[in-house]
Amino acid sequence: MSKKSESKVSSQFLSDFLSNNRDAMWQPNPNMPLYIGRSLHFPVNNLSAAAFSFIQINIKATFRRAATSWQTGIKVTQTSIPHECLIEILDEGESVNVVVRGPKDSITECQDLLHTCMNNIGQSLETLKCVSEIRRGYLSPKQIAELRVDPCHYTEQQMACAVNSTGDYVKAPGGVSDELCSFFMTGEEMAKLMQRDSQRGDSDCISEDKLRDTAQGIASDWQAVASFLEPQPLMQYEISKIEKKHATGKQQAQAMLQEWKNTYKSRATWDRLERAIHRARTTDKQ
Fold it and tell me: What DSSP line would sit under the chain, residue for residue?
């Protein structure tokens, strides 16, 4: 290929990359009524644009010409049995949503495409080691079928409780609910959820490894996080004491988290820590 041709191809790729967007690439399709989706949330440190670009490159390498990307997303189209996957980065990297849709008789193919894309993303994140905590969730089939940009999601714990209950629905705060059968979960996936539910008494506790990883992620803003911790935030004199005793941001953040964990024991949970980090960073942006 000549340099002129290469330049033309590169220019066309850049033009497509910048012009394509969700509205253009994810239109309603009556031939694909089945929807299923998963979410990846990063409660400690957001996924960067560069890291998402790396994910896009790996997805393109896997699916070749079947993948089309733009700045905040990538779409995979499988033509043998028509079904599609949409992968998007949301809220400045706080989460990534993976949605698959297809014909009403393509449940198995949709599940396979979803698992392939989720595994691909997981391998990319493992290679980059750019996020210290990943929370996986299930997107509301009802809301992703409505093409919502940021649909409701259910945590693994919520899904586990629903799978173990006698009801047919899973419910989220705010009145949103979905039929369990609409998630098309495999028997193996349901068994794992049931096992997690039986162990959920310990699942929200913070291990020493997770504590160290979290300290690394909040090293630059741990004081703000400390001011939003529950059940009680750290007082200013406690923060000053930690600053004097420890030299680096990571050491200070780890000391703060350790003190909080030692003080509140079982009440020092991931949910509360995640809320504190989110509130600290949301307040900082305002």
Answer: --HHHHHHHHHHHHHHHHH--HHHHS---TT--EEEEEEEE-SSSPPPHHHHHHHHHHHHHHHGGGEEEETTEEEEEETTTTEEEEEEEEGGGTEEEEEEEE-TT-HHHHHHHHHHHHHHHHHHHHHHT--S--EEEEE-HHHHHTT-SS--EEEHHHHHHHHHSS-SEEE-TTS-EEEGGGG---HHHHHHHHHHHHTHHHHTS--HHHHHHHHHHTTTTHHHHHTT-SSSPPPHHHHHHHHHH--SHHHHHHHHHHHHHHHHGGG--HHHHHHHHHHHHHHHH-
